[in-house]
Amino acid sequence: MELLHSATFPTKQKLLIVVIIATALLTIIPLLYPFLEDPNFLLKQQPPSQNSIIKLQDTVVASHEGCDLFSGEWVPNPEAPYYTNTTCWAIHEHQNCMRFGRPDTDFFKWKWRPYGCEDGLPVFDPIRFLEIVRGKTMAFVGDSVSRNHMQSLICLLSQVEYPVDASVKDDDYFRRWTYETYNFTMAAFWTPHLVKSTEPGKTHPKYTDIFDLYLDEADEIWTADIGDFDYVIISSGHWHYRPSLYYENKSVVGCHYCQLPNITDLTMFYGYRKAFRTALKAVLDSESFKGVMYLRTFAPSHFEGGLWNEGGDCLRKQPYKSDVTQDETTMMLHKIQLEEFQRAEEEAKQKGKRLRLLDTTQAMWLRPDGHPSHYGHMPETNVTLYNDCVHWCLPGPIDNLNDFLLAMLKREEDKGLLAQVRKMLS
User: Fold this and answer.
1) Of residues 143, 216, 225, 388, which has the active-site annotation?
2) Domain limits for position 10
3) Does 388 qualify as catalytic in the annotation?
4) What is the pTM of this model?
């Protein structure tokens, strides 16, 4: 690498070469493999001109603007899965579908193909991911589907390395894992509503199934610590279906399905909107958080033949076709998230905050085949459990959320490189 230190190049030119080489490595490193045995290969290359730098900028920007990762279809991927239930210890029992007798395997042999950019979403590359996050930290903030997502990431990364437990407390809801080779730490924060909440019966002993949700108070369990993280992935959904009393300014303003006298049922959509507005505001107002926040949109359930407590199940063996319409509740929850994100994004731009959208609802809606159903425990187990059409089998469709995540991290990295180029050219 003497080229980068040679006194024959001005300082500005050196910096430009560093940026170009770094950017090229992100996109064309496979092409370099045949030449890596030649230690003088890079020395033989001519330094790039400013015109080539500008063209490279234009190419990357165009690829960002012309490729909607989240609009597409599921296509066969016979090479999957990239781990199994016997090679990954991070799988919780109730998502270990293969262990508990699920007979079919086609449900994890699919990948998402965006329309108009077939190469825009390659399958997850664990080494590439770990190199991007080297020396950084990532938090998964939300409910059990958020934890399901993080477990999927651990399993995908197990192809390279297993993490060590770096938890600050002995609590499965708040685990931290460190990849020592890469000095990368990921953490889970359990906050199913994102806002402050109390469990049924704790404040109203007579109401054994009603949560108290303080819609204008973000949950300090996660907001107090987000300044420690470079990436924060926020998600929430299914717990908002449950009966809840809604508080604002410490006073009851209504409820969702509480069936209490003299209290207006504002519906879950009211509480859902307010919860996300409050959570996003907490990120925007945080003086300590300097990283990137990703809002991962709602991952729908797929109960058929009844509700979750009325015998509903999810027994499909194939993804939906791309033209199958979402149910009305999923559409409304997704719409609320998009509206609140767009609202927060405008303020984020003014404050220099980085908010990004992982808009995965449509992709996950098309996967009714990927839930545990009754394959979350042994058939002979003497327990009363509902069919699980909320969480996702591992391996399974939720692994593809990390394809999206890596693609977004790459884009963020590209933006940083391009910003450096523009600054040096100005």
Assistant:
1) 388
2) 2-48
3) yes
4) 0.83
